[in-house]
TrEMBL record:
The keyword Coiled coil applies. PROSITE patterns: B302_SPRY, ZF_BBOX, ZF_RING_1, ZF_RING_2. Residues 92-132 form the B box-type domain. Keywords: Coiled coil, Metal-binding, Zinc, Zinc-finger. Residues 281-473 form the B30.2/SPRY domain. Residues 14-54 form the RING-type domain. The keyword Endoplasmic reticulum does not apply. Residues 133-170, 194-239 form a coiled coil. This is Tripartite motif-containing protein 35-like.
Length: 473
């Protein structure tokens, strides 16, 4: 009996403090020590080697060996009530059965929980049970997948957040640029109105001066006639004062002069002496507006800069587009074309008839037509009705349609007319130079169509602007 006790005492004693284990922990080499004794030993030696075999511990975190602890406490006569709070917490976290308090070794896949091999054995005979280590490995892989999904989701939100920040910054630039252009346009109009005002005031003053000179000439002639008549009247009155013989000798000359002047036609007021107010004020606003129309131009299609590819540059009036040499920093907003050098019109059509002309000049590479509102603006999209684009393409002298068919033109196109009859589902293209029909595509239209423009660049060729021209709609 004493021999057995000696064996138990050796088995349950710590090789560091030589006392019965307290909170024993076991290393990967299967040697066990009091948790506090091992920690002190490692602190003194400044390594994590086993105090007995000197093998380095492969465990980063050591848990209490509760089986060994229960044996040591029972051997030393210690009660469970004296267990440390740390032990209670760790035991509570690891045991799965109050009757068999040991670290779980089995995991039920069907019920997704650790199980007691004794108490749960009858219940688990029909369930899938795997070792805890295997279950932990599988569940960690699943959790890693969930973690990746969360990280991907967060990255998507960060990408949208970044785009919104770019949108905010670009909107500020748009505000300043648009304000500047609005002011410039109104300055032009104000300058025109100012010049027109000065011109009309000058015309008014010129008429007043001209008619003033006419009246002055008439007044001068009248004054001369009045003076001459006054002299004749004085002469007649003087003649009437003479006596018989002197009167008879001189009255004939006086009478002849008086009768000559009396026979002169009566003075007449010159017509049109007053300023022609009606000419200056009549329909003034309308006549100014008509003249203003000669200074301004209407475009049936306006390009939308929010849809333009980052290498495309639009004119200030949004009627011309060219392919630039530098990339612009533009936000990746939903409307923007990011795969191809395309830009859309600002307004779409969902009914009626519409027509506009595009001046392509000698540009070596262009596509002009219409695109569905739902066309893919971010991914791969071919210029074809199958992908929602109806157009005529020009590539280095060859003209084709979106159905990969060559179209014949009499001469190189300088302009092309796009004509839409939405209700009949027709998109047609013409050479406006001689009204020659180029190509017509017919389809059932169910969604809004937008004017479509795409410009490329041929090698060693300087690209020019493609401009939308005024035409009847």
């Amino acid at each position: 009996m004493a021999e057995k006790r000696g064996l138990f005492e050796d088995y349950l004693s710590c090789h560091v403090c030589s006392e019965t284990f307290r909170d024993p922990v076991s290393l990967s080499c299967n040697h066990s020590f009091c948790s506090s004794c091992l920690q002190k030993f490692w602190e003194q030696t400044k390594n994590k080697n086993c105090p007995i075999c000197k093998r380095k511990s492969s465990k980063d975190f050591l848990t209490v060996n509760f089986t060994l602890k229960e044996l040591a406490d029972s051997f030393a006569g210690r009660q469970k009530s004296g267990s440390s709070e740390t032990e209670k917490r760790e035991k509570k976290l690891t045991v799965v059965c109050s009757k068999h308090e040991e670290v779980p070794k089995l995991f039920c896949v069907d019920e997704q929980r650790a199980v007691c091999p004794v108490c749960d054995f009858p219940h688990l005979q029909s369930h899938k049970v795997v070792p805890v280590e295997e279950a932990v490995s599988d569940l960690k892989e699943q959790l890693k997948s969930d973690l990746k999904s969360l990280q991907d989701k967060r990255n998507k939100y960060k990408k949208v957040e970044k785009t919104y920040n770019e949108v905010i910054q670009h909107s500020k630039k748009q505000l300043l640029s648009t304000e500047r252009q609005i002011r410039a346009e109104f300055n032009k109009l104000q300058q025109f109105l100012k010049e027109e005002e000065e011109s009309r005031l000058a015309a008014l003053r010129e008429e007043e001066e001209q008619k003033g000179r006419t009246i002055s000439r008439e007044m001068k002639m009248i004054e001369e006639q009045i003076s001459s008549l006054s002299d004749s009247i004085s002469a007649v009155e003087e003649e009437l004062q003479k006596h018989s013989v002197p009167f008879l000798s001189s009255y004939k000359d006086t009478q002849s002069r008086a009768r000559a002047q009396s026979s002169v036609s009566d003075p007449q007021l010159v017509s049109g002496a007053l300023i022609d107010v009606a000419k200056h004020l009549g329909n003034l606003s309308f006549r100014v507006w008509e003249k203003m129309k000669e200074k301004v131009h209407f475009s049936p299609v306006i390009l939308d800069p929010n849809t333009a590819y980052c290498w495309l540059y639009l004119s200030d009036d949004l009627t011309s587009v060219r392919l630039g040499d530098t990339k612009q920093q533009l936000p990746d907003n939903p409307e923007r074309n990011t795969m191809y050098t395309s830009v859309f019109g600002s307004e779409g059509f969902s009914s009626g008839k519409h027509s506009w002309e595009v001046e392509v000049g000698d540009h070596p590479w262009w596509s002009v037509g219409l695109a569905k509102e739902s066309v893919d603006r971010k991914g791969e999209c071919f210029v074809s009705p199958k992908y929602g684009i109806w157009c005529v393409l020009h590539r280095s002298g060859e003209y084709t349609n979106g159905e990969d068919q060559t179209v014949t033109v009499k001469k190189g196109l300088q302009r092309i007319r796009v004509q839409l009859n939405y209700d009949r589902g027709e998109v047609s293209f013409y050479d406006p130079g001689d009204a020659t029909h180029i190509y017509t595509h017919r389809d059932t239209l169910t969604e809004k169509l937008f004017p479509y423009f795409c410009v490329g660049k041929a090698a060693d060729v300087k690209t020019s602007d493609i401009k939308i021209c005024q035409t009847e709609i």
